[in-house]
Specification:
Layout lengths: L3 H17 L4 H28 L3 H14 L3 E2 L10 H13 L4 E3 L2 E3 L1
Antiparallel strand pairs: 1-3, 2-3
Helix pairs in contact: 1-2
């Protein structure tokens, strides 16, 4: 699933260039060369995002949206599809430390 963005970008550029050069052999070679370059560039760019993972602010927004969906009460286990349990616990403790939520029993109330 990862190469979907680079592949679609390269395919779009290939079709655009190949049609712009009126389907000639030179246009085919130029379109292939530039499309391959774009594929490698987009693959490297997207790979960097995937390796870094979401930012701390994105994780906080995710926790708040999930709490909204669950009626304002969130347990660390509720975030398990998105991050490891230890990270979810640390995230919720950090949010409680900033006064965004408060601890209630086994979960946190927003």
């Amino acid at each position: 699933m990862r190469p979907l963005l680079p592949l679609s970008g390269a395919l779009g550029l290939f079709l655009l260039l190949f049609a712009a050069f009126r389907f000639t052999l030179g246009g085919l070679l130029l379109a292939l060369l530039l499309s391959a370059f774009l594929f490698l560039l987009l693959d490297r760019w997207q790979g960097g995002f995937l390796r870094r993972g979401p930012s701390p602010w994105a994780r906080e927004r995710l926790a708040m949206k999930e709490a909204w969906r669950r009626g304002g009460f969130l347990r660390p286990e509720d975030l398990s599809p998105y991050m490891p349990l230890s990270e979810a616990q640390a995230l919720l403790q950090a949010l409680a430390g900033r006064g965004i939520c408060r601890r209630e029993g086994e979960g946190y109330r927003f």
